[in-house]
């Protein structure tokens, strides 16, 4: 027997309303103390009584008229009070918190408990992290808001209006599949961009490899290798391997979200295995770096993070997606699985993401094992290219462990593709 069976649900809802309103009042009190503001209107008791009033008005009049009347009266009072204290304390936080707490009663009565808890948590976080939010707001430029608007247009306006039909007989993917891939890849890259720009602006080689790998392991490898040529760093190999590790993680997420379950779920095994092996190789490279002579000082990498949400970038990705779908359809039709594996190896020298996603979305007449092998082979081929980039651009032994592992990862991927063929 639980407490919900012993006590009436209305009583429990009322207690929750009082409790949550009281907690919000406590947080507002703490917020105003930390900002050295006079208490004035909006104390803990005031917000608690506001929540009780909203609850009672909702109970007394189920039509909501009494609640709306109370809301209008409360708003009028807050307006008058704000105008009288505007010069002394112009903050709108106390009136807004009072209105939000007044809404606690009907929310607790009508919505599930999880929503009420999320509602309270969001309010508490906004109040409790005021300094962090202010600092973040100062750091964000106006162009970032425009960029976010671009992403919302891509995901919320363009995507729903695209037709769910095949582009053409030679391109076995739909318009929706192409743009959904653009949105997903842009979203992952955008998160990496935000982390690199605002949370880790002065990052060392390990963070550069980790965060850069979520965007493009090839770009991260080139940046790290060029830096190692001018200033050899024993951590370069570890950073390059971490970039490859993040590539496996990024592709596993995209494959799981965008691919059919019959293909994406089996791919989690090789991707997960290569990811774990890459982490082990990174640990081995880091251990190896301890035996190498450390330079006097390694400055942070101040490489400007490129923005992933440019319209041109999205169009190029969509074009590459359609191109690879058409080429794959042609190659599979003429040469079968063998031709697809050769194509997968060649694609590793370019951007593998649109190719792999087009394989998952297209309707190709080829065994499932051959398709899985081609996807893993493309990832392995990309690792081989990254290893060659690192070896050629760095021109020193600091990247030797990374070159050896990336070559080994390619060999493992090739063997996996041959076994599944």
What this model shows, in words?
- With 421 residues, this protein is mainly α.
- It folds into two domains: 3-136, no CATH class; 141-420, no CATH class.
- It contains 18 helices and two strands.
- The chain has helices at 3-6, 9-34, 44-60, 65-84, 93-102, 104-110, 113-128, 130-139, 142-161, 175-199, 205-215, 217-230, 236-258, 261-289, 311-347, 352-361, 368-394, 400-420, and strands at 166-168, 171-174.
- Strands 1-2 form a two-stranded antiparallel sheet.
- A hairpin with a 2-residue loop joins strand 1 and strand 2.
- The mean pLDDT is 79.
Secondary-structure map:
Layout: H1 3-6, H2 9-34, H3 44-60, H4 65-84, H5 93-102, H6 104-110, H7 113-128, H8 130-139, H9 142-161, E1 166-168, E2 171-174, H10 175-199, H11 205-215, H12 217-230, H13 236-258, H14 261-289, H15 311-347, H16 352-361, H17 368-394, H18 400-420
Antiparallel strand pairs: 1-2
Question: Major beta sheet, specifics?
Answer: 2 strands, antiparallel
State the helix count. Answer: 18
Average of pLDDT: 79
Number of strands: 2
Share of residues in helices = over 70%
The helix/strand order is HHHHHHHHHEEHHHHHHHHH
Distance between the termini: 58 Å
In terms of structural class, how would the helical and strand content be classed? Answer: mainly alpha
Q: Strand portion, in percent?
A: under 5%
Whole-number total of structural domains: 2
What ranges have pLDDT less than 50 throughout 5 or more consecutive residues? none
Q: Give the overall shape, derived from the CA principal axes.
A: elongated
Give the assembly state of these chains: single chain
Strand order of the largest sheet: 1-2
Radius of gyration: 28 Å
């Amino acid at each position: 027997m639980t407490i919900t069976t012993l006590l009436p649900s209305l009583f429990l809802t009322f207690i929750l309303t009082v409790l949550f309103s009281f907690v919000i009042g406590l947080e507002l009190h703490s917020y105003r103390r930390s900002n050295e503001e006079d208490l004035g209107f909006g104390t803990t008791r005031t917000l608690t009584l506001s929540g009780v009033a909203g609850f009672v008005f909702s109970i007394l009049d189920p039509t909501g008229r009494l609640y709306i009347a109370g809301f209008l009266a409360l708003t009028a009072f807050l307006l008058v009070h704000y105008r009288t204290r505007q010069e002394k304390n112009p903050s709108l936080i106390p009136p807004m918190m009072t209105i939000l707490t007044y809404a606690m009663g009907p929310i607790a009565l009508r919505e599930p408990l999880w929503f009420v808890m999320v509602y309270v948590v969001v309010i508490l976080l906004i109040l409790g992290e005021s300094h962090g939010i202010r600092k973040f707001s100062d750091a964000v430029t106006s162009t970032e808001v425009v960029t976010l608007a671009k992403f919302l247009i891509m995901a919320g306006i363009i995507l729903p209006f695209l037709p769910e039909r095949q582009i053409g007989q030679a391109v076995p993917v739909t318009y929706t599949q192409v743009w959904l891939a653009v949105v997903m890849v842009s979203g992952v890259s955008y998160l990496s961009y935000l982390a690199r720009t605002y949370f880790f602006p002065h990052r060392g080689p390990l963070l550069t490899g980790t965060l850069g790998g979520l965007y493009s392991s090839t770009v991260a490898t080139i940046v790290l290798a060029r830096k190692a040529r001018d200033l050899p760093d024993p951590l370069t190999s570890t950073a390059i391997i971490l970039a490859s590790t993040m590539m496996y993680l990024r592709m596993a997420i995209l494959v799981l979200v965008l691919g059919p379950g019959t293909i994406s779920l089996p791919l989690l095994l090789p991707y997960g295995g290569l990811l774990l092996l890459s982490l082990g190789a990174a640990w081995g490279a880091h251990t190896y770096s301890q035996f190498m002579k450390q330079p006097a000082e390694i400055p942070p990498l101040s490489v400007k993070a490129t923005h992933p949400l440019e319209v041109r970038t999205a169009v190029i990705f969509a074009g590459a997606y359609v191109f690879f779908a058409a080429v794959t359809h042609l190659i599979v039709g003429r040469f079968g699985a063998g031709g697809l594996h050769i194509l997968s190896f060649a694609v590793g020298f370019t951007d593998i993401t649109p190719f792999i996603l087009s394989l998952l979305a297209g309707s190709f007449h080829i065994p499932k094992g051959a398709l899985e092998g081609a996807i893993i082979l493309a990832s392995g081929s990309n690792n081989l290219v990254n290893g060659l980039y690192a070896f050629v651009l760095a021109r020193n032994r600091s990247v030797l462990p990374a070159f050896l592992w990336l070559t080994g990862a390619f060999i493992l991927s090739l063997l996996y593709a041959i076994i599944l063929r």
